[in-house]
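User: What would this chain look like folded?
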Amino acid sequence: MKEGDTMYDWSQIFIKAAETIGQTFDVALKAKERMITAGFVDVVEHKYKLPVGPWPADKKWKELGRWSLLHMLTGVDGMQMWMLHSVLGVSCYV
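Assistant: Here's the prediction, encoded as structure tokens.
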């Protein structure tokens, strides 16, 4: 994703909201550093793109995409509503 993409812009709102309460959504970006700080040695980091949805042709990536989509559809919505309402003060009710 890049700046100007809807998902990128949306994610920036929640990254900043989390920071206002001392939390982070940048866990993956900081994982290697935190592992080293905790005392692990020879830490190797691998980065992968993760599809959202069953669109890939490859069977493995299709399955990962399904799980990723399930996570997005069942978990992220409630978290985002809480962040909007409780942290950012946005009215979530019509």
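DSSP finds three helices and no strands in the chain. If you want, I can go into more detail on any region.
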